[in-house]
Each structure stands twice: as C-alpha cells, then as structure tokens.
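Q: Predict the bound structure with adenosine-3',5'-cyclic-monophosphate.
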Amino acid sequence: MASNRTFTMIKPTAFKKNYTGAILKMIIEEGFQIRAMKLTRLTNEQAGAFYAVHKGKPFYESLVEFMSSGPIVAIILEKENAVEAFRNFIGATNPEQAADGTIRKLYGTSLQQNAVHGSDSDENAEIESGFFFSKMERY
Ligand code: CMP
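A: Predicted complex:
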C-alpha cells in the first residue's frame, strides 16, 4: 500500500525569488497537509549526501553546488498516495516539458533550477525526510 507522505524542497532560486508563498498556496489548495516545515541551508556535503543517488552523473557536482548555494525550504506533506500525487502535481522534472499551470512550469527556470524537489518513492520520501526532521518534529 502506498504511503501517505512525501518530501519536498523549495530550491534556492525559487526561495530567493520569493516564490515560497505562492508555491505553498498551490500545494495547500491541492489538498496536501504540511506535517513539517523548515527554512534551512544545506552544506555542500549535505547536498552531496541528499543527492547521492545521482553521484557519478554529469549533472551531480553542479546540482550539489546549486543546492547548497542558498536557503531552501524543507517540507513533509501528507495526502493519499502522496509521492505519486505530488509528482503529478508539480509537473515534469524539466520545466520546459512541464504541463501549463504546474509549479515547475510556473516557477522553474531550468532542469536544475526546477523550483521544487519531489521524492520519487515512499522509501526515498522517508530517507529524505530524515535528513531534516526527527520523528518528534513531524505532525
Ligand atoms: P529533483 O526532483 O530535485 O531530483 C534530482 C534533480 O537533478 C532534479 O530535480 C533536477 O533538478 C536534476 N537533474 C535531473 N536530471 C538532470 C539533468 N539531465 N541535467 C541537470 N540536472 C538534472
């Protein structure tokens, strides 16, 4: 059975451009409940660990550098079938290919700076949530 939680991050460019409020409004209006949220910043080492699954890919170093370049907003969300529902909701990884009206289409500027991250499996949602939140910090 699918888990009802997923993990997202508002990426540095989207935060810097003050899109956080608009993005959160869309997420909440779509029916996702916020279960944990934190404004923070990743060190280069932490970003490297977060995206370790991509280590060795041509975009890895640049992605790690970007993700540690400024504040991010880390969020745990709850909704039925959350991982799949959220990925469908935010649009394709590449904003150019994302459907009109999706967060990535509206607020993403490139494949790397695609406004928000979304967990790709229940297992990764739990691992990624653990990077930022203890069990006590989840509601
Ligand atoms: P995200 O959902 O955060 O998960 C991994 C990230 O890697 C992805 O969003 C993109 O920002 C980035 N990414 C994936 N594929 C590429 C690629 N081919 N070139 C550059 N960045 C990529």
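A: DSSP finds seven helices and four strands in the chain.
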